[in-house]
Design brief:
Layout: H1 25-52, H2 61-69, H3 72-99, H4 116-140
Helix pairs in contact: 1-3, 3-4
Length: 141
């Protein structure tokens, strides 16, 4: 049996301000974390351009990169980007144990969880190790 009765009532749509998220600190932190992703993309593109220029064998590319990066505006932008990327990593690393639960064993009757601190310290350790490897590779080349 089909009910084809048409309703002429308008659904209630509550008005929402553009800054609804600014009233709650959780959403402010969320928006700040998501906003720092743009600076992470800026750093990734900058590193991509810096590392790709020598492969194209452009004359004076090294001097041009050095001139751009030695500019005080570029230095300040890179400092802001560094702080933003560290904040982004810090908040995501603290969020990761809440998003993904890991158990000590794969036994179905064992429900003991790995503590959050192990996740966070493990992620920071992996980040530090990757940073050291990248720095060593770049200094040896």
């Amino acid at each position: 049996m089909d009910n084809n009765v048409k309703s002429y009532r308008k659904p209630y749509n509550r008005p929402v301000k553009r800054t609804w998220w600014a009233d709650w600190s959780f959403y402010v932190a969320y928006m700040l974390r998501e906003g720092t992703a743009f600076l992470a993309v800026f750093v990734a593109l900058e590193l991509l351009v810096i590392t790709a220029l020598p492969f194209f064998a452009i004359k004076g590319a090294d001097a041009a990169v050095t001139a751009v990066l030695s500019n005080p505006i570029a230095f300040i932008l890179n400092l802001i980007a560094l702080v933003a990327v560290v904040f982004h990593a810090f908040t995501w690393y603290n969020l990761m144990p809440k998003a993904m639960r890991m158990f000590f064993t794969k036994k179905p009757d064992d429900t003991r969880l790995i503590p959050d601190k192990f996740y966070v310290f493990g992620l920071w350790g992996a980040t530090a190790a990757a940073t050291l490897v990248i720095i060593l590779v770049l200094t040896l080349v």
